[in-house]
Amino acid sequence: MAFIELNFFSEVLKKEETVNVIFPHGDYTDPNFPPRKTLYLLHGAFGNYNDWIRRTSIERYAQEKGLCVVMPSGYLSGYMDMRHGGSFYKYIVDELPQKMRSFFPLSDKREDNYIAGLSMGGTGSLILGLSRPEQYSVIASLSAGMEYLYGFLDDDIILDERSGEQEYRINVFENARKIAAGEKPPVRLFVSCGTEDGLLPKARATRDYIESLKGDGIVFSYHESEGHHNWVFWDREIKHFIDFLELPNISDVH
Q1: Whole-number percent of the chain with pLDDT over 70
Q2: Which of 168, 202, 227, 229 could form a disulfide with 233 if both were Cys (CB 3.0 to 4.6 A apart)?
């Protein structure tokens, strides 16, 4: 397994960006080498691209499954196109996958691409993933829900020009409805929150909404267990999510 700190110029953000990448070993010169499955893993508020690698065992979990993990920085953008700041939605869902596939042999098939995050990144993964089911087949949200922490993250700074908070709120709920109803490609959705976490009501509200939807386009897995809004919980739950992906062990793949 290789751990790579990668610097490149983002045309979308108009500046140098850094991502951490966990990449499985293999003979990449072999013409039969399969493009790798990829997890885009988002940090929470006040974090950056180093959080997951410093505070969890994500490298070990990924190694067991031969999974590539891409960890970008979203700053305090909410992973949205900001009114005063960068276009982080476009960066994460459009530019970043293209960049990564130009650097590494990664699969572009939707069934091989996943998005997950914690707290701010957990809501970000829901908004991004549910808006692009043709791009991500599995979505995970840890310690978060479909509604943003308005008042905590400054709406005037984060939200773009498209009519404010209601634009994003309506889109994420409507996108989930369309996926469940079969109007968009199906997804698998994993939501997890600690019982001592202050964001538990948002996770439960998401659970209730998803379970109320008609149709079987969303395969939903919801988990509550003892835990706070901290890395002890997130380390445990990202392992559960990787198990949820049901990937073969590395000894069983090329």
Answers
A1: 87
A2: 227
